Queue: 4 jobs
Job 1
Amino acid sequence: MFNSCKDVQMPSANEKALSVFCGRPADQCSAELWLSYMGSTANGHTPFTINFAIGDQNVTQGNTTYVPMNYTITGCNQSYKNRSVCSCQDCEASCAIVPPIPPKPEPCKILHIDCYYFAFAIVCLVFNLFFFIYVICYNILVRNSLDVMDSQYSQLEDEDGDYSGVFCVNGDGKKKRRPGAQRINAPKVSHADISCLEKTGSWMETLLESFFHAWGTFCARHPILVMVVGLAVAGALSAGISVFQVTTDPVKLWSAKDSQARTERDYFDSHFGPFYRTEQLIITRSNNHTNVVHKNPPPSEDTVNYTSIFDKEFLHMVLDLQLAIENLTAEYNGETVTLEDICFQPLAPDNTKCTIQSILQYYQNNHTNIDKVVMDSYGFSVVADYIDHLRYCLQAPASTQDTVGLNMSCLAESGQPIFPWISLGGYKGNDYKSSEAW
């Protein structure tokens, strides 16, 4: 029975339903804790205490022997009276078997080195080897950097250290100086040595030089005509700005109009209403860490410490802030928009209050409820106050009436329970009275 119910979702609170019926988060609930909470009057729904005996042995009390219930439970993945089974979201047993993840293939390695690294290293080595051989051969065979090729001319240094003279080598081997002559190192290039690509590049360069020379001359001679025509062309090309529209809707920016995601979203909005987004406000006290000491009702003399965020004066201040935020308005298309016009209302149209996850909802957002107290019959000591109501609601957030004497509901104004593990933060384990923030 527990396994069939443990995964059932409660869409209004985005929580598992067992969180309401167990008095604690669903992941911390067990079959024993579930039945114990359901049989306790602390949940606000059970009229008297019910003690569940879990076991498969007979239990004898006085002259009565109780036999363990032995009924077959219909699993959540089984049909009951020809009804459909629970979905995979609410019943893990209804989910299809997920095939195991195939193991990752063994990484490719050569000489204990990744194949990609090894291949890149070989390519880099071959490229460098080819490049250096090419450079060496080019300098030796083409540029004659080692003077191993015969040359018609050789250059010698003058007496004053410059190279202004070139000596011509005659047939008899004697050198004759020609002052003022220029050095000739490279052989002459013939027309046959020029490639087709070089000819094309030279022709294109000449063509561009001629065109831009003519265009520059025309612009210099007719400046007004050029500026008028340029402005007219620029204005004609910019005419589309008049029909330009800026898309700011993130839905239109991230999904195509006919995409599957967009189609399913439009279907959901038209049948169930648009989805909502959560806005979060975190409140804490950074300059006051004084604990709130609460005295238990008489005849007990014990006290319990709560953090400073549960101080009554602080609760009133935060409630004023919360009410001010709820009353914010905005003008849109000549209409006044309030929070209730755009917020999530799970019980609308019967209840149009917004879903606000705050512990102030335990007091229905009312200053009077925070100040409410119950005195003893003599009017001498306080039997219950806002802390007692808070302690009860933290244990049973779905209760419609507390049992401490204040007779106030723990449900929010919107009619839903306020779970402490959602509305509080900074607590240790399940000790919600140690919370440091809302």
Job 2
Amino acid sequence: MSTVFVPEPHLLDSPRGRDWPLPTALGGAARLDEPPRTADAVIVGTGPAGLAVAAALWHHGVRDVVLFDRGTRPCGRFFDRVDTLGQRVLRSPYEHHPGAEGYRDCELLDFARLNWARLTPVERREVRMSQAGHRSVVPVDVFEAYCRQVASTHRVTERTWQATVHAVLPGKNSVTVCAGEHEVSARFVVLCTGEERRKAPDGWWPGPETPEGVRYWDERAPGGVDELIVVGAGLSAAHLVANGLAGGAKVHWVFRETGERYQCADVNSSFFRPEGRTRFDSVSWEDRLGLMRAFRRASVMFEFRPGLERAEANGRLVVHRGQAVTGVGTGEVRLADGSAVHGDHVALALGTVPWIGDQLLPEEVVGARDGWPDLDERSLAYCRAPRVFAVGAAAGMALGPAARNIDGHRVATARVAAAVAHGVQRGAPLAASKAVAGV
């Protein structure tokens, strides 16, 4: 008889909001003053990917860097979304972190060990699991403090301006970045714009406005819900279900698959290793599309299984498996078999889509094919704008399914930072200019 190991759900309960000792040079929020007119590099987005790029460029000696973010602090949007879901631990293990790779730097596991006294017994056990080479779970609180550490020690915060970038215009010898009322002429630009929530399909409701009583996973939940409907099969959906149950609601869980998928990682672990990326590199574009579809399917961390199974057994959770949704309205989800699920509130967790730069770059530069940008696979530069690079989910067809994960950010960062540093070292002085040459 085989034994299946199911991790205990208490791994999901790490505390938030602890005090962490941080360097005195931490600095405050993103700057609101005028950024410089020129820079060696501009990084668009200061989430985990942007943080990784900034740290790597620092170690390469590229210090004339401007970062733009619509938020007020590094990784702010990432942690706002995490806290909206009430998420306490990350799916990524300790070896996946946004610190610089290949340098004498404090890594995430080092940071956790340095702050051993602040960890709970369960968290300490996870650190030991990581040291022994086993799967480990990283607390959000530890990860956020580590990101602040990286931002501080690599002078990221003091080089970050709060502004929404609305255009990136490549020229012959420079790239103009338009952010709010500012324009910066840069030798190179790195887009670290992440992913956006996937919107409901056309036809689920009439008109562009979301029906009353319907929200997406990254929007705040209302109080006083007695019967909640959650649509989606991934980790965000699992958090919405668990939150509803914890709040005393009866929950209906609707998804198209015939059964839940529980996985340690949201992509196959082989794609985190060089041999997995080589496997992806060696096949045709059509085969890559197939691999992306096969290995980006929604799944839930194992830690959720015991609690969700207990809730289903006692009737507090009703799971509607193998059901396609045909329509959504106030307090109602209509299914393909003609039936409908009713409740007080509907929460949609339909996944995310890569932001490939098409909202910022000219369409002919992006060269989108099947929803993916045309990138140089060695440097991750846009083939039609070699001074502009992509790190994060947008590099998926170059790096494989792991591109959207924190460890994929580090692999992409290593390529991009080396290319940018080489270009800066061999380039001529850059003059500020508002003129944008043709591509």
Job 3
Amino acid sequence: MSLALTGCMGGGGSIPSASAPITQTESQQGAEAHPKLLAEFGGRMTGVHADYVERVGKNIAVQSGLGNAREDFTVSLVNSSVNNAFAIPGGYIYTTRQLVGLMNNEAELAAVLGHEVGHVAARHSQRRQQAAQRNSILGVLGAIASGVLLGDSGIGDTLSRGFLQGSQLLTLRFSRSQELEADELGIRYLTNAGYDPQAMSTVLRSLALQNSLDAQLQGRNATIPEWASTHPDPASRVSTASQKARGLSGTVTNRDTFLSGIDGLLYGDDPAQGVIEGQRFIHPELGFSFTSPNGFYMVNGTRAVSINGDGGQAQLTIARYDGNLETYVRSVFSALGGNQQQLTPSSLQRTTVNGLPAVYGTARVNTGQRTVDVAVFAYELAPDRAYHFQAITPSGRMSTFTPMFNSMRRITSAEASAVIPRRIDVVTVGRGDTVATLARRMAYDRAQVERFRVLNGLGANDTLQAGQKVKIVVRAR
């Protein structure tokens, strides 16, 4: 159904020179899934940034050879802080605003969207579903949107897939050969459109560097991107894409046009979805905050926040609430068990956390490979609204999350109003400006230089020239 471009790479494969027009069945599939997918990824953005992305996407789609490509393709900029791009049958292609903010010219944007067009043109979703005899596209999307983390596959299978990665990160996997085929098709589309075909390798390089920096800041392993843990690291794709583009014509990058087109774009977490600041998560609109344990990192999705570390994984999310916290917790356990096994807490305990009514329970489960503890800790924030952590650790280790469970609290109006979003600000390098001086303007309290270099595709030894345009990230007051 979809892919995380940032984690894909493949082996060989035959490259079709032209593709059959999008069928009525494919159009119907995509039209049914489209609104659900938009909701899962923060909604479709509108305005000048979205219009620019759509225009570039439709222009590159024409190069696919699909009939009426400009009219048949739907290109969406989605409001997500995850570096991701994906496609579904029927000509629906998507990129997150975060991924666009990482790019440095129009050719790179065309490369990412061209990769997605390639998946549609080569019918990768359909071929993948047929080969694996998977659920229908809507069935897969329904499982993603529902937020059922363990589902029918059972707890043991969920552990092997990476428990509680966050709903935005669950995307249908393409094969390695399909990923390379989409890369190669994207490079072909770039060349035909007159763009620099090396843009595929440069955007992949930026993705690899961003993944490495994120891992460094979060204290985790950099070899596997969090947005696509089952896919190859984008770093392994850089040289392959560069080799494929070598000797091909095309020089257009439209760097200044691109930077003008994304100036002011929201970057990082949207306060409407809550924000992560270090170890703290704060949601100004819903009015609560919590702190993750030391040594863990968080990933913010539109429906949930995941907390990941070597000692366990957890997620804060929401379920249907009828005013009874005990019933709420039992229903969450039941959903986690899915159809494979009955999952019930050994007991339920009622307590109060920072003035919030709360109920928690735990269950010990033998997955066949190991014994784990599963906990659900729920809080009532209003008579008709409750939230809960669901967590999993090796047996006897659930105390790892106790400080986090006890940190949940309401925030004041002053705390809520102090949450200000970040945005891309395109500036012109002045005489005397350096990487260091411009990096100090980045709206972060650490790794300013490293963030600035990755954001602008600069190597460790690259310098700036007066008159050059670069991106910084600032608070949007």
Job 4
Amino acid sequence: MSSTEITVDARGHRCPVPTLRLRRALEDAPAGACVRLLADDPLARIDVPHFAAGAGLEIVERSEDSGALSFLVRKPA
């Protein structure tokens, strides 16, 4: 795994903002980097995996704690 990890805090924002912020961060990230998205919009459970699959990205880690969602997404090298 790359040592580069970027955090995008999209808590408090509703669909489609968390996924759009994730996409922008991945576009700006170097190849092989990971972006951690923090979101509290329940639709992120659906939107983020759908976006990742369509973009050819890997979700390395996914967790939920009291409604707060965390996704770690790797940009291909």
